[in-house]
Design a protein that fits this description.
By secondary structure, this protein is an alpha+beta fold. It contains nine helices and four strands; from the N terminus they run ααααααααββαββ. A four-stranded antiparallel beta sheet has the order 1-2-4-3. Helix 2 packs across helix 4. The protein is globular. The termini are far apart. 32% of the residues are buried.
Length: 201
Amino acid sequence: MHGLINKSIQSFLCDSFGGAAWQEIAQQSGVAQQLGPDGFEAMQTYDDSLTDAVISAAVAVLKRPRDCLLEDLGTYLISNERLEALRRLLRFGGVSFTDFLYSLDDLQGRSRLAVPELALPELALDEVGPGQFTLTCRGCSFGFGFVLVGVLRALADDYGALAVLEHLGTSADATESVISIEVHDPAFHAGRRFDLAVEVR
């Protein structure tokens, strides 16, 4: 797993639950023993089992359901100001939430332009009716489908869309997830400001 993902998980746990909680999670997962007190480095690569150990330890320490914790992680990735670069990468997918959904098939390629070593799961969007979609996530790990639900909910709000999302299930080998998306109103409210150009100070 790329260090950017692991570092984002670490930041989410620290910011949301405090440094003491992260230290306990780091101890239980083996991160503290393997990597030291600073935890993950953003530009390193780690075994997927260590990422899964962190999530499992967080579930045990925080006493929260795994899927809820992962959805909250997805929301954090979009809403936290320190991760504005990720929000910008995703918002370049279209001027509306529906446009963004249609661009998800190309997300792997766009992410590789930004970080060549970052391997995101394959996403396939199917339109099943007016404003109704199913999104299949292939090559998922550690419950990425639930993270994606949190990301999409946060982005719907970011765009100002009224949308309902539901995680429909994961394959037996836990490598494929399906998400239902219903866009009731793509312009329900104003949403957050987004400019194509980055302000230079």
